[in-house]
Structure to design on (299 residues):
């Protein structure tokens, strides 16, 4: 991998994680519309956006050929399931004022990415990284003991997107084409669900004002753009580097949750989050030290 690939990967990654950090603003504007309906509209509108882009950039043939490659299609089908799970529970977290817990999931995920990278791609998993993972696990245990319940939304988000990142890194497909296949697969049940809701007069998006309706259906562009960039970043960067960049997104989400949306953050949560943040500090220190060693050893 060339330095140019790495530089472009960093640019794609920075854009992606800043954008995702600000995504709760979009969902809060849709207050009153169920998470499932928001997700279905996002998927259908994303398909329209991606189909347009595929045609404009001349990737139609590559897109069509993807469906004749069974192994590739199987991998993308699995990644489709993972991203659907992640989208739904993230939307649910924001709509039910659980963004603090959602941010915890994305704070944990960099450590999960490092673990997956070590196990599946034989990336180095150094002693400080192991220590960071253990500290993060102790933070989760603290949250369970102090709050009396598992932060399950955080766990689902971390695991689903961690697995998605790992699978997409191993899948030999362009980010735009891969995302378009995933969205096409998801669009079928999404359209069926919206038609089912409409047939039972349960489609809440029919009852909103015009500006909210336009905001809802702009979700395609809001959703597709960062995911295309993420696909490009995932192909160019190590999983551990992607994990390091991801600190940006939950930090913005956490700030929005506490300071803009007024979610509570009491002392019980502080203990658990504090341990996770400590784990991230240890992990970051290890990444920085490793990068310095590589630069010193470079000819």
């Amino acid at each position: 991998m060339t330095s140019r690939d790495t530089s472009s990967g960093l640019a794609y990654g920075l854009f992606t994680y800043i954008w995702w950090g600000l995504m709760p603003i979009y969902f809060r504007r849709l207050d009153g519309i169920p998470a499932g309906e928001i997700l279905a509209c996002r998927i259908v509108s994303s398909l329209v956006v991606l189909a347009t882009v595929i045609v404009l950039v001349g990737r139609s043939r590559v897109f069509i050929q993807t469906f004749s490659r069974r192994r590739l299609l199987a991998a993308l089908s699995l990644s489709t399931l993972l991203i659907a799970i992640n989208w739904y529970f993230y939307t649910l977290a924001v709509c039910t004022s659980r963004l603090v817990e959602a941010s915890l999931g994305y704070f944990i995920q960099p450590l999960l990415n490092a673990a997956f990278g070590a196990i599946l791609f034989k990336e180095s998993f150094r002693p400080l990284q192991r220590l960071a993972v253990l500290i993060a696990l102790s933070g989760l245990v603290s949250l369970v003991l102090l709050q009396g319940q598992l932060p399950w939304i955080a766990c689902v988000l971390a695991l689903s997107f961690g697995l998605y990142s790992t699978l997409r890194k191993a899948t030999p497909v362009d980010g735009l084409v891969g995302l378009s296949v995933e969205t096409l697969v998801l669009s079928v049940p999404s359209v069926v669900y919206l038609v089912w809701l409409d047939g039972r007069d349960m489609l809440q998006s029919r009852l909103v004002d015009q500006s909210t309706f336009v905001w809802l259906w702009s979700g395609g562009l809001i959703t597709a753009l960062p995911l295309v960039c993420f696909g490009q970043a995932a192909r160019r960067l190590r999983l551990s580097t992607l994990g390091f960049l991801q600190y940006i997104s939950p930090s913005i989400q956490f700030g929005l949750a506490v300071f803009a949306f007024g979610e509570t953050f009491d002392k019980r949560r502080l203990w658990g989050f504090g341990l996770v943040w400590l784990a991230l500090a240890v992990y970051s220190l290890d990444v920085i030290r490793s990068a310095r060693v590589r630069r010193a050893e470079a000819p």
Summary: Residues 267-297 form the longest helix (31 residues).
